[in-house]
Amino acid sequence: MTNLTATQATPDGPFTVIARDGVVLASGWTAETTELTGQIHPTLRAEALEEVASLGSITDAVSAYYDGDLSAVDTVPVHQLSGPFRNHAWEVLRQVAPGRPVTYSEYARLTGRPAAIRAAAGACAFNAAALFVPCHRVIRTDGSLGGFRWGLTVKTSLLERERTAVQAGLPTPVL
Q1: Distances (CA, A) of 173 to 9, 12, 38, 86
Q2: How confident is the model at residue 6 (pLDDT cuts 50, 70, 90)?
Q3: Is there a contact between 49 and 3 (Cβ–Cβ < 8 Å)?
Q4: Beta-bridge partner residues of 49
Q5: CB 79, CB 18: distance < 8 Å
């Protein structure tokens, strides 16, 4: 079994995706696959990792996102494994619309477990599929950014890009 990887340039730095059969397993703003492989559930890791120039529709979706189609990444299939709460929380996170960040407590409420604020934050922290599962759209209750595996500079850039697009009236899904 082989996983494929491709890295593309973005305004926020190199963005690498590891995928299998058109499904994202891990992604983030790095050119180093070693920064991603540890985030993949052990049962989804492959013995081999093959570097390719493009992952087709996945690479195209990232390019489209950076070209202003913020919903382009929404339909890209993602496969992550964890416990029932995290799996559900990652699906819920994919429904948070661009330009409309939520707080960790709002995110916990959206999962159906309003008291599970730390568990919701944990789902963000262990999210392997950055951008496709938009953990950057979760902020602290006081409006500060909180953490982000790929750095607050990238998180700020993503949130600003999305805020600007929404203010400009570009279409974004409201889920």
Answers
A1: 25, 23, 32, 23
A2: very high
A3: yes
A4: 3
A5: no
Residue 157 burial (CB < 10 Å; 0-12/13-18/19+)?
middle
The three-point CA angle 107-45-23 to 5° equals 60
Q: Which of 108, 135, 138, 158 is catalytic?
A: 135
Instruction: Kindly list the strands in the beta sheet with 23-28, ordered across the sheet, starting from the edge strand earlier in the chain.
Output: 23-28, 15-20, 2-8, 48-51
Answer yes or no: 135 catalytic.
yes
List the end-to-end C-alpha distance of the chain, in Å, as a whole number: 36
CA 95 to chain CA centroid, Å, is 12
Query: What's the mean per-residue pLDDT of the chain?
Result: 94
Q: What would the two tokens of residue 139 be?
A: 């902020």
Which DSSP category does 5 fall into?
Answer: E
Cβ-contact 106, 92 below 8 angstroms: no
Segment 166-174 mean pLDDT: 67
Give the whole-angstrom CA distance, residue 152 versus residue 96: 19
Question: According to the model, what pLDDT value does residue 169 have?
Answer: 79
Q: Is the pLDDT of residue 174 over 80?
A: no
DSSP bridge pairs for 27: 17, 129
Q: Name the amino acid, one letter, at 147.
A: G
What is the model's pTM? 0.94
